[in-house]
Amino acid sequence: MKKWKNALTSVMILAAMVCFVSGCWRQQDRNNTKTGNEKEFSDSPSSAQSGKHKEHTAYSFRTWKKKFQVCEKDGKWKDLTPIGVNIGAGKPGAFPGDFAITKNDYMRWFQQISEMHANVIRVYTILMPEFYEALAEFNAAALEPLYFMQGVYNNEEDISNLCDAYAEDGKIAKDWVSLCRTIVDVVHGNAELEAEAGQAGGLYTADVSEYLCGWILGIEWETAFVVNTNKNNSQKKYFEGKYLYTEQASPFEVFLAEGLDACISYEAEQYNMQHPAAFANWVTTDPLDHPGEPNREMEDAVSVDAEHIKAKPEMKAGLFASYHVYPYYPEMMRYAPELMTEKPPNPYKHYLTDLNDYHTVPVLISEFGVPESRGITHFAKDKGFNQGGLNEQQQGEAIVSMLEDILQSGCAGGYVFIWQDEWFKRAWNTMDFTDPEIRPYWCDVQTSEEFFGLLSFDPGEKPVCIVDGDASDWEGERPLLASKDTELYVKSDEAYIYLMLRGKNDDIRITADTVKGQGNAEYNGADFAIDIKGENESRVMVHPYYDVNYWLYTTGLYASGSVLKEQEGYADPQNDTFAPIYLMLNRPVLLSDGTLVETEQIETGRLHHGNADPDAEEYDSRADFYIKDNVTEVRLPWLLLNISKPNVKMCIADLYAHNEITYQAISGITFMIDGAAASYSWEEWNKPAYRERLKKSYYILQDYLSKR
């Protein structure tokens, strides 16, 4: 695993000497150190020594009171407000475990992130050597370095199966400690990892430790995992390591302390360095009490408290607390009375203030953001912070607002989730409609989770159609069909089916048929109707028998939850009607004062009028259609027509015949206008085509950060 030890030691000694001369590395004056998390430091320059002498440990980042600090070239400590982005491991056509992002991708992205005036990036786990090589090369040439925070990802399959950190002779706990050591060698460019399925591997030679702002280890902890670990291991009440110890800790917090101490100890012993450290956490397992949380048995059932893990005097770089905090989750962000005391209410800022006030260490909000997406997953207190349904302008404004709240509440900094859109992602209210094995190969516009990024992966090597009412995109195309008043043109790409109507467009119905043997008999068995009725009343509707959302919550997987009531005759295959298409947002919620909030849905079939040209002044990324003179352009998400595997031309099959969601092959889509009908087909694809584009939200955040 470890290579070139003797050579590395010599290099480190030389590096330490260079660092001392430049004043970059600092050594803590141990006589000025207190135990615990509240430490005092000497500000007089001192030599960073190499070797394994614990009293001489190099570090250039530290936590100081409620802030981060970085040592500058003159040897003085300067406050650092870490503001940046998380970077995922996925891109179109690949799962995160495929590690398809190239070194050139990283170099390009680092430049864009730096130009946005962010100073830190965060990665969740060990990435391929190309990431660390790119970071080293970029920073070697950059006027201002781009720092990073490194994490390790726990095996979620083990967590799900064992649900106890110490089960099976401590399998998860042992793996946790091992990972927390391995990541140190990776960051110091001294590792060779065997490639395994879903895990990065290769030869790691790029030492990027000088740019490491801190460790954020672990994941968002599931309630059951924490509860079971505490329940089954009551004897594990205390931990004392070389650099950390616990006070009033739960067994789960002991488990976390073991991993953190392993990371800190290993880096100090092998490389004579330290970096600030934290474990990942989120609102669900925070240490605060939330009496107004409607779902307390899940969202406020157990605490994981960073204050129960303390630093010994030898831990010079310091500890901090890391949290993922969003404005729409959990339900208390919308309903808890204790968070609504301001006028107007700002539950997000109120929560952040409470969280920061609780802690004695710096609080870093390591994930925050909202998706710009057509699909919506959940409502927030303020609709401008919903989980989806926002355009890029609204996304940027929400991110800036949240960052302002983070900083004004006293938190040390924040990282936007996420840098790039992620086609492989799923959302709870659409995940049952799609096949998880092929999600990265097409863009599901109905799923909000795919669109948190500041960097968009637009479908196609070049635009198939820009929905702006300009018919030039259709030059040379032949109409699919023509009625007496209207011509219909059709194209598609990895995200949409595009329609262009030329002629009558003020009150027109287009029907679409995919599954034979069902549908509205009045319209030759059509499964869908696309009604263009002006800017405000246009929508897509579904034949009730093919309404997946209705089936799912009345007959299908979630029928027992009494979320939706069955409507007599609604799903009759002979029903000659079309119905609005809804997307489930929330099951009934019982508030702390006894009020029942009924089931919430959104009419996802309603079409939004706007100009979808990114270069247009009135650009609206949320646009579905645009009417201009006698031209109407429409873009329909594949899933809105129940086509859930467009890359292999498959749609959702007969729901009631199979009593589950299955898929069937189709030859195409039959469109009809005023009795004239024709079928549209498309080519299957193995790898999706796409192109990168910085969203409007990127430039909004860039402008904000440039003025800080």
Distance between the termini: 44 Å
Spatial strand arrangement across the major sheet:
11-9-6-5-4-17-14-13
Computed Rg: 28 Å
State the CATH superfamily name of the largest domain: Glycosidases
State the CATH topology of the largest domain: TIM Barrel
Give me the CATH architecture of the largest domain, please: Alpha-Beta Barrel
Q: Write down the domain tally.
A: 2
Look at the helices and sheets and give the structural class.
alpha+beta
Care to count the β-strands?
A: 36
**Global outline:** globular
- CATH classification class of the largest domain: Alpha Beta
Give an overview of the whole structure.
- There is one protein chain.
- By secondary structure, the protein is an alpha+beta fold.
- The chain folds into two domains: 77-441 and 697-706, Glycosidases (TIM Barrel, Alpha-Beta Barrel), CATH 3.20.20; 465-687, no CATH class.
- Helix content is 23%, strand content 21%.
- The protein contains 15 helices and 36 strands.
- The strands form eleven sheets. Strands 11-9-6-5-4-17-14-13 form an eight-stranded parallel β-sheet. Strands 25-24-23-22-34-35 form a six-stranded antiparallel β-sheet.
- Strand 19 (481-482) and strand 20 (486-492) form a beta hairpin.
- Helix 2 (103-115) packs across helix 3 (129-141), helix 5 runs parallel beside helix 7 (251-271) and helix 10 (347-358) packs parallel to helix 11.
- The longest helix has 21 residues, at 167-187.
- The radius of gyration is 28 Å and the shape is globular.
- Mean pLDDT is 92; it is low at 1-54.
